[in-house]
Amino acid sequence: MWFQIDVGLSKVVSEAAQACDISTVDFSPDIRQADPRFGDFQANGVLPYAKLHRLNPRHVAEQIVEKLRSMEDFSKKIEVGIAGPGFINFKLSGSFLAEWLNLYKSENDYKAAIAQNWSGKRIVIDYSSPNTAKQMHVGHLRSMNIGDSIYRILKFCGADIIRDNHIGDWGTQFGILIMVIKEKGLRASDLSLEEIESLYQQGSTLAKENENFLALARNELVKLQNGDSENFEIWETINKISQSAFDEIYVEMGVSFDYTLGESFYRDRTNEIYQELTEKHIARVDNGALCVFHEEHEQFSKQPFIVRKADGASNYATTDLATVLYRTETLHANELIYVTDGRQQDHFQQLFLTVKKWYAAFGRKCPEMQHVWFGTILGEDGKAIKTRSGTPIKLKELLNEAKARAKKIVDEKSKELSNSEKQHVANVLGIDSIKYIDLLSNRTNDYVFSWEKMLSFDGNTAAYLLYAIARIKSILRKCDVDMANVAADCLETEAERNLVRSLTYFPIILSQAARELRPHYLCTYLFELTGEYSAFYSTDRILGEPTNIASRRLTIILGTLNILETGMHLLGLETLERM
């Protein structure tokens, strides 16, 4: 029994086509979900094949269908027909759907069935990556959220995947910060991250107004880079305070990492980069800076990729190149994924082009590299979301407000819960709602942030899905049945068929989300699945029905619950027992 039905159908149709002397080199079944009026799945590959060979597509489809119908095991479970000029439609029998449902009952069943798709891939995914000495703000939400969901999806699908939080901890801000802390006679260990950020803002203003101050700050940075013990201690303390504040948010968001290796980790590896790029004439000095130009690329033939500044300092490009080398040679990754906002597209295009030339020049195996970029969170005025004063909204404040707003809703709707239960539900609802609205739209699109829409129980929201899950759990609690022993016989009603058919689409959507690195496919699927469940629940009773019908329908709602919860967890969302 196939877990991913489109893949199974593709294999059988290819075998039937080959038996009809149709070349599999030219023919691809192209299995897709069908319009429910015509079937459950559709093979669209006949038309392009017939066009290529100047054949009648209907005649080609008839040959394949005749062969499929002659396959006794296949034709007993799947009805085959032809529509239009040569589309082959498949309708899954009630017994086929019941067998699928009985076989794939839990998250472990799904994992075991789909894990082979990505085995052998060792991937490093780079996401979140805040700068130390600054609080995380709303702009950091998407990288953390999208990156964590992609990690969960790929790991579930069988990839060997490593999470790396590549923090910015070696920038020019430290010269300014160290200078201000020394001038004010402060102890870095006594400061909060909020105070550190405020000191940096004060110092940054001074640096713009006073060239002497800027020169002194640069000198403090040079001392740090040369290993001055006092400056190094201040730098290290600031990073520890920053990391502690970051960790509080990561815990609240349910996000964690395998490595947190900042830019500073690679500071002793930059000379190797300069030497190798120069040795193979990949980089050259231009206006005092060491640059890579990609002559074959219209834009980057003149736009330099600067790997060493004119003053001899390294930059993002240098540490990113050193990071690629570490991830491939030490972590043994064969694929690298970077999750950042769309403004960094040029940087990553240049980075990837440079890595390919560099690795080829030294006979290294180049990893597959992908920039997973995303759009901007907008306010209801259509501009990048900010506070009234024009500054970015602090992420900590956003999460606190989400929980507070959710608490008001829970207090109103769930009066029967204890105070501790209400607070737990509010915390989950608030955080899930923030995360879900962020994942819901195609990541390359901007989206408008709206508290009202985000926390609504109507429409495609976390609240709607959480409530559906809690409602199913409530039904299962009321049924005095050992769920381990329930099973489905042949499906009978239209609502049963529609819901279980939707369940069979889960591995298809999951594979699509993994291939394209777009979690929103999963959001849309879970919303539509919940709609099918609601239609089923409104027409097909469970309690009071004969044993075989009750057992079948309990199996169906248990299967629905498992896929809803699995999908939510793959999005990084927590679920609730009751609301």
Explain what this protein looks like in three dimensions.
Helix content is 54%, strand content 10%. 40% of the residues are buried. By secondary structure, the chain is of the alpha/beta class. The mean pLDDT is 94. Helix 2 (46-53) crosses helix 3 (57-70), helix 20 packs antiparallel against helix 21 and helix 21 packs antiparallel against helix 22. The two termini are 37 Å apart. The strands form 4 sheets. A 4-stranded antiparallel beta sheet has the order 1-2-4-3. Strands 6-5-10-11 form a 4-stranded parallel beta sheet, with helices on both faces. The radius of gyration is 28 Å and the shape is globular. It has a domain at 5-92: Arginyl tRNA synthetase N-terminal domain (Gyrase A, domain 2, 2-Layer Sandwich). It has helices at residues 5-19, 46-53, 57-70, 72-77, 94-103, 107-114, 141-156, 173-183, 193-209, 211-225, 229-253, 270-279, 316-329, 345-361, 395-413, 419-440, 451-454, 462-478, 494-504, 506-516, 520-539, 547-570, and strands spanning 31-33, 41-43, 78-83, 87-92, 122-126, 160-164, 284-286, 289-292, 305-308, 335-341, 368-374, 377-378, 447-448. It contains 22 helices and 13 strands.
